[in-house]
Design a protein that fits this description.
The protein is mainly alpha-helical. The chain has a single domain, classed as lambda repressor-like DNA-binding domains (434 Repressor (Amino-terminal Domain), Orthogonal Bundle), CATH 1.10.260.40. The chain contains 5 helices and 2 strands, in the order E-H-H-H-H-H-E. It has a two-stranded antiparallel ribbon with strand order 1-2. Helix 2 packs across helix 3.
Amino acid sequence: MKSRIRELRQLSGRSQAELAESLSVSRQTVNALERGRYDPSLQLAFIIAGYFGLTIEEIFLANKE
């Protein structure tokens, strides 16, 4: 799954560690999300969407393979 988390995080001027703290996850989780190596749970996807004030669909894009 592709996401816009890195783009949105950078636009907000936050580090991975700062975003991780705000989301109550580890920095490694944020890194894995940004690199597309980890698909978030539905609950975490809603938390991320709420944090950025966007819908899940505006942040996460399904790979079409």
